[in-house]
């Protein structure tokens, strides 16, 4: 039995650690699903007025319905959309009926349509407030001279278009923009890999136990 003590101890301790990591990831999965459900409920909730005092954490994804007019000019953020390819998010100034001018993310247009004419004028829109986190360590700097943006940097965009630093991402615009498809706020881009991680840890635990069984078998056969 002394010959089996080491493989049994190592095998059980290793498998227990790997199983603990798997179950921890399952707990994280349940937490993440709850967070995503909460975000979805906020996105689809009842529209609220534009905030006067801005709180990005409390007001993130807040739904709004606005009437006003789209102003002249636009900024173009380079993006890639599944099944559509490369293109631009079109960001324009939008002035509400009560006189506030904010940023409006109108949606996606193909990369070749950057210089196409854009409609302006009176619209009614529904959308969500958003403070996007588009920038990371590998994101290039925006080329404002060429009107090519790589991230929705709200402060710089507001300065360029002379608006408040407040962004609404359109879900629906009436009348619709010809050539622009809304890219509404959703949970699609929020990573949720916890199930994949859990499966990985559980699989490693199974492999560890198999290797432990093989080690014990060799000990019993007198091969170790």
Automatic annotation (TrEMBL):
Residues 124-143 are annotated as: Disordered. The keyword DNA repair does not apply. Its main location: membrane. It is found in: Cell membrane; Membrane. It is a multi-pass membrane protein. Keywords: Cell membrane, Membrane, Transmembrane, Transmembrane helix. This is SURF1-like protein. The chain crosses the membrane at residues 195-217. Belongs to the SURF1 family.
């Amino acid at each position: 039995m002394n010959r089996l003590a080491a493989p049994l101890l190592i095998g059980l301790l290793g498998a227990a650690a790997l199983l603990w990591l798997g179950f921890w990831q399952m707990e994280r999965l349940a937490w993440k699903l709850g967070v995503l459900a909460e975000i979805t409920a906020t996105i689809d909730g009842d529209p609220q007025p534009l905030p006067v005092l801005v709180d990005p954490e409390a007001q993130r994804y807040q739904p709004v319905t606005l009437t006003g007019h789209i102003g002249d000019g636009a900024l173009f953020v380079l993006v890639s959309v599944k099944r559509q390819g490369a293109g631009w998010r079109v960001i324009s100034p939008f002035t509400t009926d009560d006189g506030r001018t904010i940023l409006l993310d109108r949606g996606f247009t193909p990369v070749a349509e950057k210089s196409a004419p854009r409609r302006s004028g009176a619209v009614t829109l529904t959308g969500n407030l958003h403070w996007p986190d588009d920038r990371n360590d590998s994101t290039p700097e925006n080329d404002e001279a060429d009107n090519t943006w790589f991230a929705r940097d709200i402060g710089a965009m507001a300065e360029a278009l002379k608006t408040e630093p407040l962004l609404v991402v359109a879900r629906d615009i009436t009348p619709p923009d010809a050539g622009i498809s809304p890219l509404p706020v959703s949970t699609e881009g929020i990573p949720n890999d916890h199930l994949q991680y859990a499966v990985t840890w559980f699989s490693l635990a199974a492999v560890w136990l198999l290797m432990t069984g093989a080690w014990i078998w060799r000990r019993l056969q007198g091969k170790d």
